[in-house]
Task: inverse folding
């Protein structure tokens, strides 16, 4: 059995496997599939509760993932942002001595969430400049 | 909301659903064999330290790994252990049960996360893995690990044959 605590390396190795089979385009195709197939709960929450749906979704996932983060919600302004001080996923991959993270690992977050939120009328902006240190951030804004 | 890593335990069981979705994707795009190839490749790399431990300490290293895994996930296992053989009886796979409970699709190939992964872990360690039983609905399983008997060397065999003749 693969424990859920071992999922992140399994995920990173899946990206590598797909890249070997069909290049980065195959990996991107998988991310699109995963966004459509697996993030229905984020989509439903945002459809039902608006920007607060983002808060509820990431409150659940990031706490279970034992992340180190600051999360802010401004319902009047229609804004939601996360500052990820230490990403639990990338952090684990970087800390592991015998695992090399997939070169484009961090790009999956940007694609998965952007693909859900933008069609619902939100702007998704990500700062990936410190991904190599397991830090990142993003902001979701309700378009008027 | 501010959270530090130490504020929460690391246990996001929905990841099982994401792995199941990934396995289905690989099967649909590249076939069932590719699922086994992927899981084998992952396990061979990720469990390399465990494989080294098995070479040094024997089957007890795998026993400890399995006990820790199921304890973390809240699963029940019964283990019959000797230095040459270990039988693991899993009452229900915590990953499968979580996906059933949350309504995630369980890939028909999810069994490979046990069968193929066990084989990859054992490869090159002197032990063999066998998935004796597996129930797709619950993930209940019986897994057996046995020490591989070393084959007699050809020279010894040849000499033996000469002695007989």
Result:
């Amino acid at each position: 059995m693969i424990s859920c605590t071992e999922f992140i390396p399994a995920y990173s190795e899946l990206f590598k496997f797909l890249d070997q089979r069909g290049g980065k385009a195959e990996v991107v195709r998988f991310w699109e599939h995963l966004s459509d197939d697996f993030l229905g709960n984020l989509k439903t929450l945002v459809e039902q509760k608006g920007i607060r749906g983002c808060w509820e979704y990431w409150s659940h996932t990031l706490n279970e993932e034992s992340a180190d983060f600051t999360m802010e919600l401004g319902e009047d302004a229609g804004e939601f942002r996360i500052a990820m001080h230490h990403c639990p996923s990338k952090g684990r991959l970087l800390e592991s001595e015998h695992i090399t993270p997939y070169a484009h690992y961090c790009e999956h977050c940007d694609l998965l969430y952007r693909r859900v939120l933008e069609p619902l009328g939100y702007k998704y902006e990500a700062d990936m400049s410190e991904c190599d240190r397991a830090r990142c951030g993003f902001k979701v804004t309700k378009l008027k | 909301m501010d959270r530090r890593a130490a504020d929460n335990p690391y246990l996001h069981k929905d990841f099982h659903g994401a792995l199941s979705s990934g396995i289905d994707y690989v099967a649909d795009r590249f076939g069932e064999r590719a699922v086994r190839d992927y899981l084998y490749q992952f396990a061979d790399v990720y469990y390399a330290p465990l494989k080294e431990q098995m070479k040094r300490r024997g089957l007890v290293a795998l026993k400890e790994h399995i006990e820790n895994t199921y304890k973390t996930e809240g699963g029940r296992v019964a283990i019959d252990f000797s230095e040459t053989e270990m039988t693991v009886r899993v009452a229900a796979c915590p990953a499968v049960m979580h996906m059933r409970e949350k309504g995630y699709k369980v890939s028909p190939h999810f069994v490979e996360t046990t069968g193929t992964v066990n084989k990859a872990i054992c490869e090159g360690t002197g032990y063999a893995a066998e998935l004796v039983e597996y129930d797709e609905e619950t993930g209940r399983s019986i897994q057996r690990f046995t020490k591989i008997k070393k084959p007699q060397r050809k020279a010894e065999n040849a000499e033996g044959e000469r002695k007989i003749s």
